[in-house]
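Support request, please re-run this one:
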Amino acid sequence: MILELIVIFSEVRPLLCLLGVPAALLLAWMVSKAIHPRARKVGFFLSACFAYQAFLLLIFASPLISRESIETFNMKWAIDEKYLQSHQDPVVVFEFENNPNYRVMQSSNELARYLSDLGEPVVPVSFVVERDLGRFRSFRISKVADLDKWQYGWQGTQSTGRVRAPW
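Re-run finished. Output below.
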């Protein structure tokens, strides 16, 4: 539960940075009134703002937030014929060798041409995987065999049955 709240918290970073300082000042004012009505408020306000900014820095600069790693898998590939009629670019379907019920698809003429010319049925595919607090957040294909730059229309996943993503 706390982990999910922190992940949700990481999605509202800009909002917290904008609204957090006034909220911290209001909280500091309320605490200073409760502690001592005649206390010096300037130092208390500044320390509250400093504590709030230190908290944000700790959370946002944490080694657990928005960590990217590159993971490579051997994958079978095929051009999906059923998408050829409905899309201009061919759709390349990658299937994980270790997890054949989970597939990644990408619509790309360049990628289909490269793989067809390569002629290998199994190729190494590298993914940039992003995690927040150790939980999978997103991925993107960064390299297929030796190809590391190409244009594509869309990317998606497909699974059969109840399978877990390989990340």
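Residues 13-35 form the longest helix (23 residues). The CA atoms of residues 57 and 67 lie 16 Å apart.
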